[in-house]
Amino acid sequence: MEILLIISSYLIGSLSSSIIVCKILRLPDPRTTGSKNAGATNISRFASKKVTFVVLFADILKGVIAIAIAEYFLLETLFINIISIAVVLGHIFPIFFNFRGGKGIATFFGVLIILSPTLSIIALISWILVILLFKYSSLASIVSTIVVAIFSYFISYDNFIGLTILSLLLIIKHQENIVRLIKGKENKIGNKNKVS
Fold this sequence. Notes:
The chain has helices spanning 2-13, 17-24, 40-43, 49-72, 77-92, 105-115, 117-134, 137-155, 160-173, 175-183. It is mainly alpha-helical.
């Protein structure tokens, strides 16, 4: 059962909503335009707000579904943490789309909604605060994942190791953004058709 759910969670994560939605609506493949990242932030650069919301919602839903199923079957914390990592890995490296996916933030947030609602609120607040102060989506994502890892030690200790691993994975995935932030070349929210 545990192995089946881990594999299923990876496959759920591999359903890249941005690519699927763009194909249905005959929009450019997000992997070939803008930042070439299959995620909601890139979608917002060439599609409408409605399309962006659908992609964001679907990416979050993947994390929600994976953890909700795991908790329904009353799996041990270890396996729930592995499933958390599996669904996010599926989003980042989708088997259905040549392992080229998004950066995992929305799906990570979906995981948090079920795993620890308190942490999901903390993550959302920290993300919004960074956006309001600096207007960098990537910086907001990086900061919020670090905040989650730190606060998980106090709020959700059983998930501390799993969430820390996920946070490190997401930070590594943002390494190009980090370089651009350091060089002052990262694009802010609202810039269309640019790399981020």
